[in-house]
Structures are given as C-alpha cells and as structure tokens.
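Lab channel / #folding
Pinned by the channel admin:
"Please post every new chain as: sequence first, then the structure tokens as a reply. Keep commentary short and put observations after the output so the thread stays searchable."

First post following the new format, from NK:
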Amino acid sequence: MDIRRITPDYAVSPQIAPDDVPDIAAAGFRTVICNRPDSEVPMELSAEVLRAAVEAAGLTFVENPVTHPTMTPERIARQAAAMGEGPALAYCASGTRSSILWSLAQAGRIPTDEIIAATSRAGYDLAALRPRLDLARG
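Reply from TO:
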C-alpha cells in the first residue's frame, strides 16, 4: 500500500485491498473514499467487498467512483463532503483521480500554486489543471 499525504487530513493511494484496512485504521484514517469504478477492478476488490472490510474496522466508507469524463461538480462536491469526515484516505487506480478531486474541491478556496505544490509533494504532477483551478478562483 502506497499512502501519500496531500494534507494532514487527506491522503491518496492506488487501489487498496481488504487486508490493507487494518493498516489504514492504524494510520488514523476514519474515512475511506472509493474513487474507482467497479468496472476497473476484479470482484475481490469491488466497492462492496471493500465497504464490508472498512465498516468492519469501524471506519466510514464513501463510494464516489469517477472517471475523467464523469468528474462533475456533483462528484467534486461529494468528495469534498467525504473529506470533511476525515482524516480521509481516497483511492483509485494510481491516486491521480483522488488527487484531482481534492484539487478541484480546493479550487477557489486556496491558491492554485498551493494546490499544485501539495499534490506535487505527494508525487502527482497536476500542473496541467492550472487553467481549470484558476477559473474557480474567479
């Protein structure tokens, strides 16, 4: 498992498995956000399977699967709400989508340079998002 902190209360990871959940709980996360559609994973890594493992560990599981075309304002708002239940760990295939969702949720709230720097420190180069992030600043 490759957990990368974007902020003290929000981290991202590539795909997790049920046997990762005890380590996630031990790391202090209270919420796990699934940003990966079930169509991308085998049944043993489906949201249903992971929800059972996460909830059995006493954590909250939020299903918010996205693809780049379905990264709508509603999905971004859902991510922001789930992040508020943190500390939160969001996962997808590589952590990139979860980083993009965080970035878009922060747009207009914190400076674009800070958003890009935070994701860059975690290993995600999201500089190409700058125009979209700047638009949200108005």
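NK: The helical segments are 21-26, 47-56, 73-83, 96-106, 112-121, 130-137.
TO: also worth noting, The two ends are 38 Å apart (CA to CA).
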